[in-house]
Write a structure and sequence with these properties.
Helix content is 58%, strand content 7%.
Length: 261
């Protein structure tokens, strides 16, 4: 956790650490990414104007390097593994945003990841005047009018409409939450439990993650440990429909245990 919370590591290095811990493999993606960086640098080298350079760079990434994808309701675990994700050009959005930021920065631009209502997007800062905000999945950019409309959904006062970069911790949590759901769907409960453990190390009192840890421990036949997490969720979220069902189950278990004793 100390390495994951270090400010000295960039996003892509963080994802490599997560991948190594969760899947027990060391991703070998440096050569593939460096090749893309080199070719993108060559594509923008003869262009002087910053905005045009940024536009050419985006086209090189999504057209020349076939990074263009369609949104997916389900990202398989392979889409969360850097090496296979890049090779297959099927990359989970938060991981893809980190990869794109890494490439863009290597090409001489400032870049960060922002949350525009409903999705993560990548921002290239061209200069003091221009920036481009685009969807990491399909490369489509937002114009100023579209951006204002989306920001109005958060705050109707134009003076309070800001678009700040999300933190590395928030990006990691988004990645881990999505990966956890995928691994549960794929019944890889031991790996999903690793995702929850990392999230809880950053957010120890999150009742939803405690509930999910309880579920995973239960699936791994550790019900005595899961019981405390279930009970914590029920106490913290008493109006949640899932909590009401769990409460009944826990009461029945308590009754059975009392009879046995």
């Amino acid at each position: 956790m100390s390495e994951l919370q270090s400010d000295k590591k960039d996003c892509l290095s963080m994802f490599s650490l997560l991948e190594e811990f969760i899947f027990s493999t060391s991703p070998e993606n440096e050569d593939a990414i460096n090749t893309i960086i080199s070719q993108c640098q060559m594509a923008i080298e003869p262009i002087e104007h910053a905005l045009e350079r940024a536009e050419v760079l985006i086209n090189a990434l999504f057209i020349d390097h076939i990074f263009i994808e369609n949104d997916s309701d389900f990202w398989p675990s392979a889409a969360f593994k850097t090496e296979s994700a890049i090779a297959n050009r099927f990359i989970e959005p938060s991981l893809k945003a980190a990869i794109l930021c890494h490439i863009i920065r290597a090409c001489g631009f400032d870049s960060d990841i922002v949350f525009v209502p409903e999705k993560l997007m990548v921002r290239i800062i061209c200069d003091d005047i221009y920036a481009i905000i685009f969807d990491p999945v399909n490369g489509e950019s937002l114009n100023g009018y579209e951006l204002d409309l989306k920001l109005e959904e958060v705050n109707a006062d134009p003076h309070l409409q800001t678009l700040n970069a999300i933190s590395q911790q928030e990006l990691m949590i988004r990645f881990l939450t999505a990966l956890k759901s995928t691994l549960i769907r794929e019944t890889a409960f031991d790996q999903a439990l690793k995702c929850v453990d990392i999230i809880l190390a950053m957010r120890p009192d999150d009742p939803i993650e405690r509930r999910d840890r309880g579920f995973l421990l239960h699936q791994l036949d550790c019900f005595k440990v899961a019981y405390d997490d279930y009970r914590y969720f029920v106490e913290q979220c008493p109006k949640d429909p899932a909590a009401q069902l769990l409460k009944l189950q826990l009461e029945n278990i308590s009754v059975v245990e009392s009879v046995l004793h």
